Each structure stands twice: as C-alpha cells, then as structure tokens.
C-alpha cells in the first residue's frame, strides 16, 4: 500500500471565516479552495449532513481542512484540551522561527496552554496554544540548541 497524497487533517469549526483568517494570517497556511459537501453525500458518509470545507495548504506539506457543518450545530460545551483525552490532540507546525507567530497569536484570539509559553525540549523550542475556538496547536522550531539523541520532533 502506498500513500498517494500528503497528509490532511480536518478540524470542525464554528466560525469558518475567522478560523481561516487565523490559520492563514497567523500560522502561515494558504487558502486553496472551499468545497460544499451536500447532505446527499455528507449524510451517508457519516459526516452528519451538509457541510462546507475550507482547504488550507501547509507550506511544508499537507493540508488542514476546516469543516463547518451546516445542518448540525457545533457544540460549544466541549471539555478543554487535555493530553489524556482520547482522539486528535493537536496540530503541529514546524517553523524556522516561531517568534513572529508568537507575537501575533494573542492578538488573533489564541491563548497559551503552558507557562512558560516557550519550552526547550530536545534541541527545539516548542509552544502550545489554543486557537480562537480552543483547538490545540503546537509550534516547533529548531532554535533550542543542541538536540538530545533520539528526539522525536
């Protein structure tokens, strides 16, 4: 079995326009296209009905798909992010220098998930943030010094 395309991750959102601006203007993704998935496809496919998908290209490869259900409301009563929670935990973006992104995150409605905001780990700097709707995002850059052997990032 061989994979034919770069990896894609889907994130269900309440405010598609706001989240598209966040991931493009702050994180650095590029809006590629929008797709309307009709109820006749979304229902039988197990997606809950009609939805709109904004395809955002990640410059280093892959795609983030922002998914806005149209026929079912997105719950706002979701538990805060926790590493012990099952399911998708966070999106990781590898940057050459995270400092310009860090400077823009709070103004864009994101909030840090750690104190200190930037942590040195295995020769890299990492920073975890909640995007404007609470989805966890990890930023990683290689400006943390000499890596320890066997690092995973």
Strand content is 25-35%
Quick one: biggest sheet? 5 strands, mixed
Run of helices and strands: EHEHEEEHEEEE
What class would the helix/strand composition place it in? alpha+beta
Number of strands: 9
General description of the model:
The protein has 153 residues and is of the alpha+beta class. Helix content is 15%, strand content 33%. The protein has helices at residues 16-27, 39-42, 99-105; strands spanning 8-12, 30-37, 51-57, 63-69, 90-95, 111-112, 119-121, 124-130, 136-141. The strands form two sheets. Strands 5, 6, 7, 8 and 9 form a five-stranded mixed beta sheet that branches. A hairpin with a 5-residue loop joins strand 3 (51-57) and strand 4. It is globular and about 50 Å long. The mean pLDDT is 85.
Features:
153 residues, alpha+beta, five-stranded mixed β-sheet, four-stranded mixed β-sheet, 33% strand
Furnish the topology, listing elements before pairings.
Layout: E1 8-12, H1 16-27, E2 30-37, H2 39-42, E3 51-57, E4 63-69, E5 90-95, H3 99-105, E6 111-112, E7 119-121, E8 124-130, E9 136-141
Parallel strand pairs: 1-4, 5-9
Antiparallel strand pairs: 2-3, 3-4, 6-8, 7-8, 8-9
């Amino acid at each position: 079995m061989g994979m034919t395309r770069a990896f894609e991750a889907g994130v269900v959102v309440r405010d598609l326009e706001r989240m598209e601006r966040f991931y493009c203007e702050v994180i650095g993704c590029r809006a590629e296209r929008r797709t309307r998935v009709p109820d006749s496809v979304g229902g039988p496919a197990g997606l809950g009905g009609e939805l709109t998908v904004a395809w955002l290209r990640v410059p280093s490869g892959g795609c983030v798909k922002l998914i806005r259900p149209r026929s079912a409301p997105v719950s706002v009563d979701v538990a805060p992010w926790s590493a012990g929670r099952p399911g998708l935990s966070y999106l990781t973006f590898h940057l050459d220098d995270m400092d310009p992104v860090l400077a823009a995150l709070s103004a864009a409605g994101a909030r840090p998930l750690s104190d200190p905001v930037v942590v040195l780990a295995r020769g890299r700097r990492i920073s975890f943030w909640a995007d404007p709707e609470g989805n966890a995002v990890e930023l990683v850059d290689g400006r943390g010094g000499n890596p320890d052997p066997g690092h995973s990032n």
